[in-house]
Records
---
Amino acid sequence: MAGNRKTIGILTGGGDCPGINAVIRAVAKAAMNDHNWRIVGFRDGYAGLVMRESVVLTNQSVSNILSVGGTILGTSNKADPLKWAEWLDGKLTFFDKSKDVLAYCDELELSALVCVGGDGTLSIANRLLDKGLPVVGIPKTIDNDLSGTDITFGHDSAVATAVDAIDKLHTTAQSHHRVMVVEVMGRYAGWLALCSGLAGGGDIILIPEIPYDIEKVCRTVVDRAGRGKLFSIVVVAEGAEPIGGEKVVQQMIADSPDPIRLGGIGKIVGNKIEQMTGVETRVTILGHVQRGGSPTAFDRILATKYGVGAVELIEKKQFGQMVCLRGNDIQSVPIAEAVGKLKLVPTDSELMATARSVGTEFGDS
Ligand code: F6P
């Protein structure tokens, strides 16, 4: 099979996002060009490890994918080899498949596995490390809520998509003297709402870290109108919640390790604003549009640096580590330090202070 060549593996788990293919390409090229290693990709995240579905990656298979969104390997935000879900007699039953996974990796003569993902994917990677699988991690998520790194790849591209949408919504807001509410992703962390709101000139930004007072939100809309600003742009994270209220759950996915899917808070905020201020209001939910499309130049470069960095970690046998960005430098951090505690927006951060200085309302003051 592998002959004398060392073999490494790669899988992409969790939600897709722009830049994953750039990571796969960088890992494969660095492995092949710098070390003459063989590389296999597992299909659909951890499902491929359990279902024994893998493919050898070649220079040809990773060619022309740098700018392409999604993942050529497929992904899953349900598959967990340590808690493998199967429906038996109409009942959801869970199995530990870690022994089968280790046996499959032995058969493939795998020296290391690169796991590309967010908190869920990397938590599983860390548990597989404990079972004896040599893993390294690469931080991915549009939410940018993974600890241990300044930024995850995919976030910048999602921000760019949201800013483009906000810019377009601005014209209708201005022309029709309306409030335009735009709901962006971000379950627990408001990075996407804050960054796109700041870059898109959002007048009101509602993030999960700051429960909002709807009276305050409406007062801002009315005050702006009083100053001749007859429109307002409201950017709402899907995980935002009113003071004393709760997140809006859209769906529960029974066989997912993280079953809650949010959505709909934008509509609630929009309805309240229209009722309480009398200003005509429209709501746009961006949803999975934010996860699609071509990565930004920033994400292509970051993803490439992360991929090459992960191969260097394997070369140095630094298993259990995740590549990360600190300032301008690619470094690494134990995966155990990155998972289990989400990186929320610090409410006393410079970014928040900057937004407040230009008059952004967060519904709290
Ligand atoms: O974690 C990434 C993310 O896009 C969240 O922002 C969002 O809440 C969730 O995934 C949506 O998941 P799904 O693709 O299962 O609907």
---
Amino acid sequence: MMKIAVIGTGYVGLPTGVGLARLGHDVTCIDCDHEKVEKLRAGQTTLFEEGLEDFLKTELASGRLTFTDEMKEGVSGARIVMLAVGTPENPATGEANLSYLFGAVREMAPFLPADAVVAVKSTVPVGTGDEVEKLIRESNPKARVEVISLPEFLREGYAVHDFFHPVRIVVGTQSQKARELIRELYAPLPNAPRFLFVARRSSEAIKYASNAFLAVKIHYINEMADFCEAAGANIHEVAQGMGLDSRIGPAFLKPGPGYGGSCFPKDTKAIEHMARKLGVELSLIRAAIRGNKKRRENMAQRVLKEVEDVPSPKIAIWGLAFKEGTDDCRESPAVEIVQRLASHNVDVCVYDPQAMTTARRILGDTVRYAPDMYSAAQGADVLVILTEWPQFDAADWKRVASGLRSHHILDFRFFKKR
Ligand code: NAD
């Protein structure tokens, strides 16, 4: 068992830190947000992930997991330091904003043990590992630190499951020592994981190439949904037929209001920005970025059209998180659609099982917030489903219908007649 430091306790860092402690490692999670650290120390999760809070409490009690906002305290003695801070989009250019990452590196470098391995978990542009290495050398010239790329592939909403059952662990390094250390780190996983050891730059590129591919796949099925609707075909039957072909596969063939979240939107733009700088054309990814933006606008238009003849219309919204299983509303298509509706002066009443607090930070008092899904639908002229929470699909539809002013349901997730 080894001592690990995880810098950043967000949607990636927290499940990773908790998971590593559960594997028996001695883990210190470091975050510059003092309030977050205090809550986590008290055993309260700062984000919603199924099963995470129970594991957090158990690992705190075991003494294997601690939280701090002090870099020195967190990093000292660590054999592996994982960087899991945010790399958000720079809205002006679309490129990844590396200021949090470089800030964290500068802060931790003076305290790094001489032979530590620094693993970059954050999604970073190709070549960032070189920059991180340079920064560490500048501030700590004696250290023989290895900087490796260890991209994260967990799915929000399934983060705990994915930590213990990773589909693959990609490691970007040429160092034999670092490879062995990473194997040792994950050795206690319940099933032997599939490791892929590659060059650091390849590893950094794998993360962007994977996310961009999935975004393109979503954009593709969304365009196909429009085509099927116009042509009188059923997109679900079409997707099922496509997915049976092993070269295509059934995953990510679900139409919806567009991709969102803290990864696909920013990562598609970041790789497109990198390519542009390198003089390479990524035409498919560019089309997906444009098409995805348009799709959100179209979805909002469809809702408005549904109530265009209704005086003072009331719109009920089920779902605000960018997907089911999370409270994350970053770049959520649902939130953007709601913002567009609210800007047309219609009465919008929203409900989400987990994302009311995170959504309220964005939407403020532009909408009404319902205590449950049935209250949200009460008296509405149209009900719109924007997040694929299973409880929405399993609703008591008779009860919903009795509350609606007229039976208009726009189901942009399950696409079922209700
Ligand atoms: P997040 O915004 O949820 O969390 C980042 C955390 O880092 C915050 O708690 C913040 O306070 C902390 N932080 C920032 N600067 C710091 C510093 N100098 N020292 C200590 N802590 C600092 O971000 P996230 O969603 O967990 O994403 C982290 C990275 O992982 C990003 O690069 C993202 O692209 C990548 N990623 C995210 C997901 C996902 O599903 N969210 C999946 C795979 C990869």
